[in-house]
Amino acid sequence: MLSVPSPAIRVTDTLDDTQRQQVRDLHGRATAEDGVSALSEQSVLHLASGPGRVRHLLAYAAEQLTGYAQLEGVEDADASGELVVDPGARLHGVGTALARAALEHAPQARIWSHGRLPGAGALAERLGLTAVRELHKMSRPLGTDDLDPAASALPEGFSARAFEPGRDEQAWLSTNAAAFAHHPEQGRITLDDLRERMALPWFDAAGFILVVADDKPDEVAAFHWTKVEDAVGEVYVVGVHPAYQGRGLGRPVTGLGLAHLASRGLTEVELYVDGDNQAAIRTYTGLGFASIMVDVMYSRTVHEPLSG
Questions:
Q1: What is the pTM assigned to this prediction?
Q2: What percent of the chain has pLDDT over 70?
Q3: Residues in binding site
Q4: Annotated binding site for acetyl-CoA, which residues?
Q5: Which 3 state secondary structure label does DSSP give 116?
Q6: Cα–Cα distance between 112 and 20 in angstroms, integer?
Q7: Which of 111, 151, 166, 217 has the most C-beta neighbours closer than 10 Å?
Q8: CATH no. for residue 186?
Q9: Is 288 part of a structural domain of the chain?
Q10: Domain total in the chain
């Protein structure tokens, strides 16, 4: 274990190359120790962001990075944050110092704990934070039943096609923003965010499925964006434009993505869904998914705590 003095917290709106690599190395060690990533995909992408996107807080013991926190939307009511502490520097107050510094910059911020780790829960209790949101990770096997066309048959007047880079970006952004208008992360996605993801090794336009009305082929009525990493498929995001909700698109567009993943020979699929989205949880449970992990978001009492 490291000999860890009280951490010195440095705050910056951009990371230089050395800092960025230090954070990635620390994050890798923590992920290997915990079995779950402390930083979301978006936070990892934000390590390379320019000024104005996020705020970075780095905890140092001498010149050794012992912890890292990231805040997004510092001035916003729905600001959020994540933090990670080097496994060798834990139980030395690094996480407490980082969390306190983050909340000084954004008192309203809600802090994620991925995987509901005991240490994160103890830190939240010490700081007087309350659980205000849960994100369930659900999973199920993929099989030949997912290739049955009946499971993904669209209502009359609708058809499906793959996302076309250079054609569909703005139409998809419009539908995504409308479908997730009240979602604190998904609803914020910009064209730059979309292009960042399209540049990642896992992006596959064939697995980015759009549903369009036959009389409006350039508008996106619904979509299912799938993802494949480490031989596991993911229901990355499913959305239906509010103008098309209630038209029976949600279940078949989900089925179209599952069929695509099954056609690639994958044997497992996972997804993330908010704990208070009981309608979605019922839908996914009906499709055979079961919860395997829960992420928890903690906050001061400026936000409504979870009931019961």
A1: 0.81
A2: 96
A3: 41, 83-85, 185, 227, 234, 238-240, 245-251, 272, 277-282
A4: 83-85, 238-240, 245-251, 277-282
A5: coil
A6: 21
A7: 111
A8: 3.40.630.30
A9: no
A10: 2
